[in-house]
Amino acid sequence: MTRSKRKGPRKKGRTGSPTTNPDDDRRDEPLQKSDMKNEKFDAYYRNQLAIDHDEWCTFLDVCREPLPSTFRISGSRETAAVLTSVVEKTYIPHLTGVVFEDQPIPAPLALPWYPNGLAWQLNVPKKALRRSPEFKKFHSFLVFETEVGNITRQEAVSMLPPLFLDVKPHHIVLDMCAAPGSKTSQLLESLHSSQSILESSIPPGLLIANDSDYKRTHLLIHQTARLPSPAFMVTNVDASIFPTLFLPPENTAESSGRKTRPSPLLFDRILCDVPCSGDGTIRKNVGIWKKWNPMDGNGLHALQLRILQRAMRMLRQGGKIVYSTCSLNPVENEAVVAEALRTVPGFELVDVSESLLPLVRRPGLTKWLPSVGRDLKYFETHEQYLASLSGGKGTARLARSHWPPAEELGLERCIRIYPHLQDTGGFFIAVFQHRRSTAAPREGKRTAEEEPEEPDVKKARVDEDEDVMMASVTEPSTSKCPEPGSPLVETASVQGAQKQKQQQTGGDYVFKEMPYTFVSPNDPIVENCKQQFSLAPDFPSSNVLVRNPAGEPARSLYLTNDLVRAVLSANDYKRIRIMTAGTKIFMRQEGGFGRREGGAEDGAETVPRFRLLSEGLPVVLPYINPKIILDTDIPTLRRLLETYYPLLTAFGEAFQRDVGNRPSGSHVVRFKAGGVDGALLTHDLVLPIWKSTSSVSLMIDKKAKR
Ligand SMILES: C[S@@+](CC[C@H](N)C(=O)[O-])C[C@H]1O[C@@H](n2cnc3c(N)ncnc32)[C@H](O)[C@@H]1O
């Protein structure tokens, strides 16, 4: 066995991460193929997965092979189309038939089930990728486009849940266990699917991405930063007790001016990509070969179930939930799905056998046998298991729901992806639909009768308490995945429950983030920004917010859409533990003061100057008066990219004149598409600049400049 020479303590867990996620980019230490075996894994799954001996051998062989790299073209629709065509027409012809060190190297392959050819698989040894002249060039292209956010590395199976969720721009979406955010990014792209390369049309819908791990919410924020969205929020709560969110009371004609009660917010789409034992990632996390134990999955069942049940109670009628894991274990998959269907009425599994057709899959299991202990003791029924515990008196670790249900629930509609089917990791997906009641709901309007069984907060609490009790016999005291092979923490999760309660009641419990506060629409700074950029009268000034309790525009101004505004104004930020909301659009320029329009002529009435941020520009652009945008060309862009603060005199006459006529401060420039001296701009590029007395600077970050 090959071991690294690293001394000192081993990394905690399979990946050192609190959970397993196919997209966590850490791999275990290398392991020889001959060491890739685990008798328990073999014995447990050989009979569970309903595949014959030969196929099981192929399954294991593929598990011993490294996982191919996969990536998704993820920019706006136009960028994606341009890049796909570049890959197909420019790179693929050069990468076909390449031989490296006498080995034929396969060309990149479009994943046949991913819509519009936007996802690719690369089965190339690292050495060839870095050293073969053909692949080296392609590698640089991938690295560059990944840096600027047009390409996202993501495991093939991890791309599936968002596809099955089918998010539209008007949907209200919750991603319950979202960090580090690969699927969140995909959901965000769907929410913004109608946006073009230059302008974001603010989607009417909403995406809340949540994770209970505070540190990991920062990964989530970082990962989603390349698609700034006024329709996006990040929260940091335990998904199994995700608080009911409210919308403000409406003053409608029907209520004849009377204030109605706040209404609970129901979701159209919910993703439950729950923490799991992660043995489907064995090709990448080879340490699983050494540490695998069925108790890892047994211990997570209760938490997974509570997260799914909570999602079901927050879904509107007609809405969809995708439940997914990267585990092969039926106890974490079909057993959770079955118990959720049994306990929350009104739901069914969607038959997705005709969706994403080229995807090779296996149906969900209807029979399985849970196993207990390090020596894999199997029990046909829960009763037998209970009887085995010191004459029936021991503490139960497994619940009845670990075993298959007695009733027919359509579990074969679940999807199992095995590594050997199409050279991927292992994965599990179930798509739930909340059945509509016979009183058909009207599209886009959520009325009381459309609400699922449980918008009643009091009832939800009772159910949650029951679930917490159930968790006490089955669940590790932490909500994170146990280290594979580690003994389960079998004590009651009383502390966990107390912590959750504190969190639910908004107690001060370590939540130190600043609140978002809406700025008065007539605030002089907002007014000044509006005047400076000639913003159209319909610019949503009432959706501008800042991050401090006083609502003081001291540093940054953020913009949300109406729905995010509604959620922020009707819910205590501490109760829902808001990490971010909306998009940063303007930022105070240090040392800059401007005279307020209509103020005293002598300049006595001044306000701090704010500049437009590049990440906020696509959101603000539709409101900017086109007349104030400075049109220029590629040589100007080149000069601005090459030099940090080029003097005005360094530019062509026209640009010098146009900029020279403007006051110093923040401005917007459009670089027209076209080609000059071998440089080609395939589309117009609109970017912010800062003009000082004698120089101009492009206000984008270093990475983007590169
Ligand atoms: C499988 S990972 C999610 C991967 C993510 N969906 C993606 O695509 O990048 C599971 C996540 O659940 C989080 N988690 C664990 N317990 C949780 C809980 N009770 N509530 C919310 N999140 C939880 C973990 O911190 C982890 O980030």
Explained architecture:
The chain is an alpha+beta fold and about 700 residues long. The chain has 4 domains: about 70-155; about 155-250 and about 260-440 and about 470-505, Rossmann fold; about 515-625, Nuclear Transport Factor 2, Chain: A (Roll); about 630-705, no CATH class. Helix content is about 30%, strand content about 20%. The chain is built from 22 helices and 31 strands. Strands 7, 8, 9, 12, 13, 14, 15, 18, 19 and 23 form a 10-stranded mixed sheet that branches. It has a 5-stranded antiparallel sheet with strand order 20-21-22-24-25. Helix 10 runs parallel beside helix 11. The longest helix is centred in the middle third of the chain and has 20 residues, at about 295-315. The two termini are about 45 Å apart. Mean pLDDT is about 85; it is low at about 1-20, about 440-500, about 500-510 and about 595-605. The structure holds S-adenosylmethionine. S-adenosylmethionine (SAM) binds near residues 19, 21, 178, 216 and 240. It is found in: Nucleus. This is S-adenosyl-L-methionine-dependent methyltransferase. One of its GO terms (biological process) is tRNA methylation. One of its GO terms (cellular component) is nucleus. Keywords: Methyltransferase, Nucleus, RNA-binding, S-adenosyl-L-methionine, Transferase, tRNA processing, tRNA-binding.
The CATH homologous superfamily of the largest domain is named Vaccinia Virus protein VP39
Distance between the termini: 43 Å
Structural Rg: 28 Å
- The total beta strand count reads 31
User: Structural class, judged by helices and strands?
Assistant: alpha+beta
Q: Indicate the CATH topology of the largest domain.
A: Rossmann fold
What would CATH call the architecture of the largest domain? Answer: 3-Layer(aba) Sandwich
Instruction: Give the helix level as a range of percent.
Output: 25-40%
Bound small molecules, by name, code or SMILES, are: S-adenosylmethionine
